[in-house]
Design a protein that fits this description.
Elements lengths: L4 E5 H15 L2 E5 L1 H5 L3 H8 L5 E4 L2 H9 L6 E3 L8 H7 L3 E4 L2 H9 L6 E6 L11 H14 L2 E7 L12 H12 L7 E2 L3 H6 L7 E2 L25 E13 L4 E2 L5 E2 L4 E6 L16 E4 L2 E6 L7 E4 L11 E5 L5 H8 L3 H6 L6 E4 L2
Parallel strand pairs: 1-18, 2-3, 2-9, 3-4, 4-5, 5-6, 6-7, 7-8
Antiparallel strand pairs: 1-10, 10-13, 10-17, 11-12, 13-16, 14-15, 14-17, 15-16
The structure holds pyridoxal-5'-phosphate.
The site of pyridoxal-5'-phosphate has 12 residues, from α9.
Length: 357
Amino acid sequence: MRPARALIDLQALRHNYQLARELAGARALAVVKADAYGHGAVRCAQALQGDADGFAVACIEEALQLRAAGITAPILLLEGFFEASELALIDEHDLWCVVHAEWQLEAIEQTNLKRPLNVWLKLDSGMHRVGFHPADYQAAYRRLLASGKVVKIVLMSHFSRADELDCPRSNEQLAVFQQAREGLAAEVSLRNSPALLGWPSIPSDWSRPGIMLYGATPFEQAQEVAARLQPVMTLESRVISVRDLPAGEPVGYGARFVSERATRVGVVAMGYADGYPRHAPTGTPVLIDGQPSRIIGRVSMDMLTVDLSDLPGAGLGSRVEFWGRGVLASDVALAAGTIPYQLFCNVRRVPLIYSEA
Ligand SMILES: *Cc1c(COP(=O)(O)O)cnc(C)c1O
């Protein structure tokens, strides 16, 4: 069997959720969209069921997958419905629903539901993707109330730069939110992972942690609270071939690496078809039998090459960790010009192997 695999530590997931909740000092919806950032939404939701106040996903397809697996906790659709016909399913499966646009308001006004909806009314406080303009927010709230179709409205918004700890933008967005919601007596949901970890003064009755549940920091620099997270995924494989090259020999496609000295090259069963980033340059960190080393040459579809020159004990069959507790996904992401979110979401083809302890 090909040795590439992703180990998923569900105990670490629960630890990170508890940390999120402790920081929130309030309820927290575990964000398990995009197949729990590549960690397997059903297994992750099952592991958190009982602890989590609820879950959040991007769309109804993801929510129905969780309901089909027996998840009965609240599930919020972060983008609401994409067409009005989804309202019947939202009703049937008792889902919570973001409303971010006028046409969604209209659809709710015109629908006939068995049960009144739990709606999260989204304000565009400055990210400028989705949400109501501040000037239209109160009117949207009143229309929802007047529709008679809702049982509860949570006021929500989303930060664009909470991962930049010295940036004033989050406080500006908070001020826009506070002004837009003036006088509305309702619960509030503002904090994603970077806001939970780095912005303790931002109020939120319902936080929405995503990346931190999976144990990766959303910040580029070291941050005290983020250091308490435990990585959930370990992406690993083994050395399947070894080459001893003299100086001056190229390795891999495009000869992107040329040995400067006699070099021992390990070929590892891991490639971009598994989700390892093709853009990871020579020097990107890996652990080989627990010892730090580096990628050399270009990452190909099914294989990549690592430097064994300074690891005399390493060879055929050596275990290579690409990210996990020994090599942080955030460091790999930085080297490869991306973010840990994308590294995790891209993981595919490798089996996900779950452990509780
Ligand atoms: C994805 C998402 C989150 C989670 O963000 P993280 O940075 O992963 O914590 C929270 N809120 C909304 C609206 C999202 O789309």
